[in-house]
Amino acid sequence: xxxxxxxxxxxxxxxxxxxxxxxxxxxxxxxxxxxxxxxxxxxxxxxxxxxxxxxxxxxxxxxxxxxxxxxxxxxxxxxxxxxxxxxxxxxxxxxxxxxxxxxxxxxxxxxxxxxxxxxxxxxxxxxxxxxxxxxxxxxxxxxxxxxxxxxxxxxxxxxxxxxxxxxxxxxxxxxxxxxxxxxxxxxxxxxxxxxxxxxxxxxxxxxxxxxxxxxxxxxxxxxx
Length: 224
What we know:
The protein has 224 residues and is mainly alpha-helical. It has helices at 40-56, 58-61, 68-83, 94-112, 126-132, 138-153, 161-166, 183-193, 201-204, 208-219; strands at residues 12-15, 18-21, 25-28, 31-34.
């Protein structure tokens, strides 16, 4: 992987007697990996799959014969797992977070139907939609799952590969330009939202009971 678009690259990689073609992106265990190590393509892929899943059950979600509680269960058990596959390792930007919220709002509007304010006559806003189903927020789910993964990774130590990938620092100098958000930055920001931003998260995660409490607190945050 390299950020240098002008770098001369070989067309294939040879390992022992096998030759692997070099490509810009490929699927690995259902996750889209790119040569630029960007999460944007994975988010697009997840949303495409989520939209396909949504359209397959759209008639149920918009039916007046199905209760709203059952519709919410359909969303949580059928659609949401498709969209959030592998979300524990995501390092989201605000733009990608907005795309996920737009998708969820579309599903919730199908569940609750169009509504107008009785006084103003205006259509229901996103904030009012969130109040109708306060237990659902796709960004809170991502934050809590990411925190839960951090609780498993923290005690592993540097000898474990998953620890080095998610927590380790790459060698060499950073390129010019704005720094990308790393996975650990998201963990620190999540902790900051629940008032623990001043504490080193690796040490904090060693206390499993306290960490579970923080995961629950993150899940109950009011995300935008």
